[in-house]
Amino acid sequence: xxxxxxxxxxxxxxxxxxxxxxxxxxxxxxxxxxxxxxxxxxxxxxxxxxxxxxxxxxxxxxxxxxxxxxxxxxxxxxxxxxxxxxxxxxxxxxxxxxxxxxxxxxxxxxxxxxxxxxxxxxxxxxxxxxxxxxxxxxxxxxxxxxxxxxxxxxxxxxxxxxxxxxxxxxxxxxxxxxxxxxxxxxxxxxxxxxxxxxxxxxxxxxxxxxxxxxxxxxxxxxxxxxxxxxxxxxxxxxxxxxxxxxxxxxxxxxxxxxxxxxxxxxxxxxxxxxxxxxxxxxxxxxxxxxxxxxxx
Length: 296
Fold this sequence. Notes:
Order of helices and strands: EEHEEEEHHHEEEEHEEEH
Shape: globular
Number of helices: 6
Radius of gyration: 19 Å
Distance between the termini: 21 Å
């Protein structure tokens, strides 16, 4: 997927990028298990603080793409051909606010963090993850008005999809979590072990984009605006990413009993992801060409 100019775009890419084209043959992707993550359950979570393994995810991962660029790109979805994503089981799913396809564009700095310096340097690593709504969740969303047919987590997710574009407080209820299954086996630092599988609220680092006709929603998560300690910790692990067996997901933070139990909205699992070692680099010229094509 690397490119210097329009003329050197790889064969098969054409005017758009193809999801998954940059992955190494060694990368292994799985749907993952919702029960990997313990999420909030009622009653009275503020008092009792109880958590339990999540039910199955609402969206299943259908692809990952990964590349580096000199400047962070957001939104990223218009550069991709999304027509090939998903299965026939949900092809006809439509809803005014809940999309069939959900995209996470994680933008990670590929430069040393500075406590006082700028957070907008370069280059950057893009990990773009594509998810498709499951048939079970599509059915629940179509029966949101029936408590017997739709659980609280799906109703909360639908509310988030409807309001998050304009409502910063609602958008900031999105939680991201990563669990490194082989953390001890590969000898990662014990001082960072407490952050493994710990939910992180995506506040000012998250940007919401809705595709035409609600074809998709993209959330860009800019790790470059995380706090210095978080950026420093992640930077120290950047070259260990290919060794990690990771499950990653998102959920909407439940705050009232009627919104619980929480449930993984998006979930996937990956092994041998090249990460910062990925050889694919999109030049400014290539990105400009793709953006121009998308706009046209």
